[in-house]
Amino acid sequence: xxxxxxxxxxxxxxxxxxxxxxxxxxxxxxxxxxxxxxxxxxxxxxxxxxxxxxxxxxxxxxxxxxxxxxxxxxxxxxxxxxxxxxxxxxxxxxxxxxxxxxxxxxxxxxxxxxxxxxx
Amino acid sequence: xxxxxxxxxxxxxxxxxxxxxxxxxxxxxxxxxxxxxxxxxxxxxxxxxxxxxxxxxxxxxxxxxxxxxxxxxxxxxxxxxxxxxxxxxxxxxxxxxxxxxxxxxxxxxxxx
Lengths: 119, 112
Fold this sequence. Notes:
Chain A is mainly beta. Chain A has strands at residues 3-7, 11-12, 18-25, 34-41, 48-54, 59-61, 69-74, 79-84, 93-101, 108-109, 113-117. Chain A is globular and about 40 Å long.
């Protein structure tokens, strides 16, 4: 059974760096073709893809946010970490991690974690 | 990369069919057969309903179907049921020399 769970702070201040962890089970990120992405959703708004890390450690970022994002993995711990620098109130959103394959869809999602940016 | 264009809302009565469109460009929807659709109930994570334009994951009713013509993809839900009321998002691969993924703005489906 595949599960993913996001964890991190519920509240961050403007200009701070956000660090989120996705802990997963039921698959291995060392398996060829496996990928984990981060996707966010501001309250009442649409989904936005942020970043992806692949089994071979290839990393991809949203063009509009790539200067602020870093994605990494710890295969032994079954974790993927996303950092986002210089947080702003417009970054307030529910952040999801999701599994996919190279060209496949996001077939399993975490429950999401709401991050509020406020002073 | 701009978001894909979806109607803000659609509605239908139980038993009817509805179609949700998703319009992109030749750089995303029109350029790849990697369009997927997600259903999201309030307060819940999105659920995969259609992938690779028209394929259904195991467990998704065959009332849900997908298609594509040019730069526009469509999700059709036939035999509407009350539990189909949700937000629906399309998604497309948009990479050229690097990966990018773009979502639609979402469509609220109301079952009357």
